[in-house]
User: What shape does this take?
Amino acid sequence: MKKTNGEKEKRDTKTKHPSRPWVDEDLKDGTDHPLEEEEGEEEWQGLEENVAHVPFTCERYSEAEMIKRSQTFYELLNKRRSVRFLSDEPVPREVIDNVIRTAGTSPSGAHTEPWTFVVVQDPNLKHKIREIVEEEEEINYKKRMGDRWVNDLKRLRTNWIKEYLDTAPYLILIFKQVYGRLPNGKKKTHYYNEISVSIACGILLAALQNAGLYTVTSTPLNCGPQLRVLLQRPANEKLLLLLPVGYPKRDATVPALTRKPLEDIMVFM
Amino acid sequence: MKKTNGEKEKRDTKTKHPSRPWVDEDLKDGTDHPLEEEEGEEEWQGLEENVAHVPFTCERYSEAEMIKRSQTFYELLNKRRSVRFLSDEPVPREVIDNVIRTAGTSPSGAHTEPWTFVVVQDPNLKHKIREIVEEEEEINYKKRMGDRWVNDLKRLRTNWIKEYLDTAPYLILIFKQVYGRLPNGKKKTHYYNEISVSIACGILLAALQNAGLYTVTSTPLNCGPQLRVLLQRPANEKLLLLLPVGYPKRDATVPALTRKPLEDIMVFM
Assistant: This one.
């Protein structure tokens, strides 16, 4: 396939470029879709031949600036907490657009960009999502946890009720596209789609914190299929995370948790 | 288990707190370790009973500030590219410490913080890593790709040679802790360890970009076990990603790729 100009052509080229190191690894370990060698190879061939390389230039900070910037960014993100008590105060739509754009700058396996961010503002739709999530949660609590546990939770006011699904001005449901389609209609494996979309969500969380918005990272129990149908997403998309987004309530509380110190998470050699 | 004071006790409480919404989802879909119900329940019970909640307060920006901050952050991260041509110029260690600290602020399933960041600066160790990665890559290229493909790659100067593994001042190897140990020595499932560590890597990529450092997100082919042994990581840790970190070379190039526009990644309802 020869490269021509025009946006569509760009997109083809792009979505088929292999970020080499991504494409190879043992998919047994971690990712959710087996590598089909034929496809893999075919895919790569089309690609490398099509991709032009261009010079890369970037901003350069002084060492002092780098140290200061990295320290300031750490302090900003270290203030992030998962907040389950969100107010219904509206949030500017433009901010939501910007944080999703930011998440979209994430790297992805073979540059497939295998993510769909469904942003739900409609109150009726939010309530339907809440009903689906709470119904599954209630079943889960009662079936799997037993009475004693349920009572403990009641005592702690922690149960299957997820009020934030109604109150948060936005719910962001993040879907991973587990495969795509080649121009010839053949299935195109999305290597590392789950790792890629999770990395994009990490960047999204950083963008939310930078904007002064809060959320709780959640993976609703067994709701993926129902929510996918409710939100009319195609069969190649699977729900990965649900993020309610807004401002904390005035009386919001968080668990008294600490984070591991650097020496517990970093090994220097 | 009653809560007492002291850092160690804090840690126990903390590592056992369930971020509720994380703990439930269908592990069939995506994560790499089956939920063992007994353990799950036991774990949760210990936790909720121990966790105190505290009031949460946070900074509040004006809407104009939020829009500006979110726009500026998008522009910063949109300049990020995966760079395979890294110079050997040294990078301040303090910046590396700060970006790892920042990654450590990520949320994680049941707040297990199941990540280990191995930072390799030692030239001999970097070279050993390069030898392991390139050996596997060469096998992969020759076995799986066939002569025509290998020749295409030669023509494109893209092959199994990964010079950046020697030249980058630091290699960050990110391991996911697939399980931990309870005080009683029992295995403690780390729910969503791969999603959690990938989210932390997204935050790490944002921190690197903010500091003016570059990398290429890589998952070395079949090298996990060998690299784990080389770096003396325990059996519960699996290599997820390898990030060479440094400054781009003066003559660095990147593939001419574009990113999907907002309307291709966001659905608003």
About this structure: The CA atoms of residues 99 and 207 of chain A lie 5 Å apart. Chain A touches chain B through 140 residues (CB under 8 Å).
